[in-house]
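Write out the bound-state structure for 2-acetamido-2-deoxy-beta-D-glucopyranose.
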Amino acid sequence: MPWPVSFGKPLSLVLTLLFVQGSIGLLFNALDINYWRCKIKRGRTCPDADVNIYFYNSEERYRQRVDMRPDRGLSYSGWDPDKKNVIIIHGFNGTERKSPMTFIRDAYLNRGDYNVFTIDWEPLTFFPCYLSALSNTRLVAQCAAQFYSPLTHMGARADHTHCVGHSLGAHVCGMISNHLTTKMYKIIGLDPARPLVHRYGSDAFKLTRDDAHIVQVIHTNAGLLGETAQVGHVDFCVNGGRMQPSCTREGRRIRQARCSHFMSACFFAATVSNRGKRFVGVPCTSSCRPLLPFGYGKTVSMGEHTPDDARGTFCLRMADNKRCPFD
Ligand SMILES: *[C@@H]1O[C@H](CO)[C@@H](O)[C@H](O)[C@H]1NC(C)=O
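---
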């Protein structure tokens, strides 16, 4: 059974089982596999009704759906070629309309110098359908790439266009590179998802530093829901990178982990404004351990204001943002 992205044997086995289970559903639907309520997209053609791209501009703020049909020429009003562009991609059980992605969107809109695009793939990634969400990332990346290329043809400067992805969305940003002849300029991966990806995902699937000229990663739940160690050219560990202090009151450990995993997006959103420059890290080991007594070492701003030539892993402490809830 062909799976274009190789997941390795054990995961293929699970997917095969899902496939058998889903074959019953196939009688009714030639392209998609539906098991239980979950949906695995087998088709790889965009536009797809389950992957939507929205555009926002600072002046009007309401969302416009980007018409992805060929030769529609990305017709949406208010796109400004002189502004920078950001593409924001949510993760598992997310949507573009929900916290914490809305905080990132609004932080960019408040700056006024960005065209903001969000990619919504909610019908393909809801809880508990993690396996199908993993599989569906391929289609989402394909659609994102098919949107990105015309955007650059329309005059968007590649070095003024970047992708911000949370969790599985971070891997989607990385997978876009599989479809491009010229690498993207910058990807910011917010606590890239670890479950199964870490063990079984190939490099074509995972976010790696080959996926863009600059790959930045922010760790907030490393080792549980987020990947560990240095993934990008530059990585940041917030509050030790693993479990966020403000999440310890969240009860069960899985909730604490989810809360910590979400915080990467809240912390990143805080760096986006011009005042966000003040969130600086100091060099630390790739496993987020301090190299020097805290407060020593050359500082580097995290997130939006990180200099392009920054390399290595940096650690910083940040207070939680109570206005950035995780559910
Ligand atoms: C999934 O999202 C729904 C709707 O936002 C939320 O109520 C639920 O707690 C989330 N579940 C998990 C396990 O993330």
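---
Helices lie at 9-26, 101-111, 130-153, 168-175, 197-200, 253-271.
Confidence is low (pLDDT under 50) at residues 1-10, 16-30.
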